[in-house]
Input
Amino acid sequence: MSETDQKTTLLEEFKPQNILKAEDYESYIGQERVEELKRLAEPVTGKGWSNVNSTLIGGGVSEILRSVIPLARGLGVQANWYVIKGTDDFFSVTKKFHNLLQGVDQPISMEEIFGAYLDTIDRNARNTLIAADMVIIHDPQPAAMIMNGVIFGNTLWRCHIDTSAPNQIVWRFLLPYINQCAGAIFTMPEFIGPGLQIPLYQISPCIDPKKEKNRQHSDSEALDILTPLFDEHDVDPERPILTAISRYDIHKNQGTILKAFKRLREEKNFNSSPYLIFLGNTATDDPEGGAMLETLKQEAGDDPDVRFWIGVENNDQVLGALMHIARGFIHISTKEGFGLVVSEALWQGTPVIGSRVGGITMQVLDGYTGYLVDPMDVETIAAKMARLLDYPDEAATMGVHGRDHVRKHFLLPELIRHYLILLRFYSGESQVLPEFRLTDLAYSEIIHAMRRPHPHLPRV
Output
């Protein structure tokens, strides 16, 4: 193989620009939780933890890993993140995987599965060797690498989507690869697909409060950040704003948000009509995003109260500021693994109208941090929009509750805590079964337990 071939087949590696310390998060989570992180990390100092996914930029997985790696390294863990390279055909077929695994019916050919997908996996496996005490394979894109003999260590598959009712062709294709892993991680027990024969765990995604998008602004700071965009897009800052922020995807259901917003203005007279602002970009591993955005723009037409902010400068800063000043955030996905953007909105003190779907239900507590709705119920969604606009004090109280809920459950240190427990277990530093385990022991573990004492298992 030529030198050029070698360069094109090696995985890309994320190189963090800084290291985060547990103490950096003390103002968010308190000293007690910081000390717990340090205690958990001490036995696995120097242990290896690698991650593999399909994009460095765009999407929730990349957002999480960009913070996970620096904090894990700051705790003494040898954390790494590798990214497989794919063609347009590869990302097209893996997007179909994503849709089909979440119940969307669309055609897929054997040529796509065994050609565009497996051939790409084979190319990425050339000259690749990943060795660590724990390796996390994220989502379907790199799943088949487990069979290429290039990953050494306890490998777990991390599923960020809802596979509870998957298309049987794609699921049966992926299942042998997943069942070769040492375990699988899901956001919710309800997401677990059929036929898994390995240990299963529940871990919720989390946001990093130190990221620019999650910096909490004052009203005046937020307005200063947004003024150039308000001027550019002719937005009156005195009028209330509702916002929707996400990638453009069939499951994000932005078309229904538009319908509900139109219904809101048909049924209610406003002294000061609200705006609906869509903010979002597309991810490199999502080839459908651009087409979805164009469809949404066509549906909006020349509506004078709807704005699309695409590819804005200082996107993260604008996102946080927009969430802060918005009267309400709308996220009514038809399918949702978790929806990090919901926690981001709640962290800014903004109540959320969220669909009664997937991980959104873990974040939006109905009537407490926002409102839960059926994703296609235009009337109810419009009514909840009106409620947020008509009762600003009630909305502000829900915002306070939302920020506290995220602080307790969905900040980065909590995610790291779970992964440190897994690393301790799979590296052999602890024999205590993780409390977030969802299944009994796998057969292989029972056989292993017969050969040595285990403090939490009866002797066989």
Summary: The radius of gyration is 23 Å.
